[in-house]
């Protein structure tokens, strides 16, 4: 009983330390950019011990990957919106909502996504992580297309994985465009336009 | 008369030197990769003088950008295939041919495109050049969509530039996938699939 309480307290402290480090890391990344940021700055800002910090993370890449999972987790929830459309119109509504929320988050999380983009270009660990996030999205979209094909809503003759990949590419590249402030058009118009072409191209 | 001949000879020699340098540079890039390649290696391989070499190029980025223009010029010829379709079917045929040739060149020029990808990730001059090549393609596609819209073949309610951008993104990302040997599907199947979704989505 006594021992368990000690363990719980330790575990709780450990979770708090990790959380403090992640928050400090986020601030340092945003202030310094990925390349200049150092783990020492993060440890100092989080006010935790060096040894303790390294129990949680091996280096800044490691920390960034966790921050990436956090942000992309929110994006992924969008892709997970339940997809059992009964008609072409219903499918189009859901897909439009997904594309819009995905691209809108590029605006909301712009600054962190800018850091991710820098890191993807420099670190192969981060770049691999991004690729695995991308594959997760593509597999999810692929499943949705299969569902629509099996239910007579979408064109059966198309390779669903290739279609899913092409659709995700369009969304991803627009995401980076928006992150870099390179688009004048509103997120609403972009989402509407790409969804219109995609759903009419795929659905019956 | 005499003077003109001297000038012509000089000019000819200058063109040959430039050509020798470009060929040597290509070999060095392919052997060493972008990061490791040095302009000294290129000058040595081309057997030209140092001073002469620097008359033509300021550095290896500069040389790579010219090589990029050469390769992408071939790609761009594809986009320039005359586009005056009289029907949806004709448009689909032309667009399929364009997508296929674009992606097929990723196979033919794979090794040089691998060098370009490395360089885009490292050098901001090369990355800017890539962006300007991309914009040229998008403007060209955008023009084709306008033509189809004006001639009652494509959906007028869609913003042609946003559609063009989305379509190019799909093609570009597949290009890099093929360059990295990351696709099992044939270029033929990829081109067929993405064209089928795109043309049905856009054309009436």
CATH 4th-level superfamily of the largest domain in chain A: Tetracycline Repressor, domain 2
CATH fold group of the largest domain in chain A: Tetracycline Repressor, domain 2
Give the termini distance of chain A in whole angstroms.
63 Å
Strand content of chain A: under 5%
CATH architecture of the largest domain in chain A: Orthogonal Bundle
Please give the share of residues in helix of chain A: over 70%
Q: Domains counted in the coordinates of chain A: how many? A: 2
Question: What structural class do helix, strand and pairing data of chain A support?
Answer: mainly alpha
Oligomer kind:
homodimer
* SSE string of chain A, helices as H and strands as E: HHHHHHHHH
Using the CA coordinates, give the radius of gyration of chain A. Answer: 21 Å
Biggest β-sheet strands, sense, barrel of chain A: none
**Average pLDDT taken over every residue of chain A:** 93
Gross morphology of chain A is elongated
Continuous helix count of chain A: 9
Largest interface: A-B, 28 and 28 residues
- The CATH class of the largest domain in chain A is identified as Mainly Alpha
